[in-house]
Every structure is written in C-alpha cells, then in structure tokens.
Amino acid sequence: MTSDALPSFFKKGGQVEYRPINTPKGWQWELWAISPDGHEEIVTSSKTGGPRIFKTADALLSFHIRNNPGAKGLFIPIPDDSGQESSNGS
Questions:
Q1: pLDDT (tens place) for every residue of the chain, 90 residues total
Q2: Residue 75 within any structural domain of the chain
Q3: 6 with 33: CB under 8 angstroms?
Q4: Minimal CA–CA distance to 28: which of 87, 90, 79?
Q5: Is 8 within a domain?
Q6: Has residue 78 been placed in a domain?
C-alpha cells in the first residue's frame, strides 16, 4: 500500500494506525493500513518507496488532517514502558 492510495482505501472502509518505533533519533511513528477484513500492512511513501514514518507528532497530525478532513480527533499512541515497539498501537 502506498500513501497516495490512501484516499480510495478510506472510501472502501480502511483505517490507519500510527505505531511508535524507537530509532537512534528518538521515537517516531510508522503508518499502518488496516483493511476492513483485518489485514494489516505498512504504508510506503509514494515518493521514496520506503516505510511512511513520521518524525514528530505534529507531522503525524498534519498528515492525518489532510487525509481525514472531517476527523474530530486522533489517537497518537505513546511507547510502552519497556522501550519496545508497540505491537498493537495502544
């Protein structure tokens, strides 16, 4: 799934999750696509071909608002205390 395919993905009932990952530069968030049937896959950038990653919560929020103009809010998961990547986005 590429980031430019998200608008049609949303129209088909798909959702996204932002999952925290620990990097040498600190916590960042990967973008994951969740299909209505429960299939999960990482979203890749249509520009770079790499995983779509947000380095700040501000960037994540801006992306979400652009892609979900009617959204009333957004849950941004924080890393758990173990310092490991969140496995379920919560």
A1: 999 999 999 999 999 999 999 989 989 999 999 999 999 999 999 999 999 999 998 999 999 999 888 888 888 888 775 544 444 443
A2: no
A3: yes
A4: 79
A5: yes
A6: no
CA 14, CA 7: separation in Å to the nearest integer?
9
CA distance 8 to 79: 30
Q: How many other CB atoms sit within 10 Å of the CB of residue 89?
A: 17
Task: Please report whether residue 76 resides in a domain.
Answer: no
Read off the tokens for 82.
């173990």
Q: Report pTM.
A: 0.81
Question: DSSP H helical segments within 1-90, as ranges?
Answer: 6-11, 57-67
Structural domain including 12 reads: 3-67
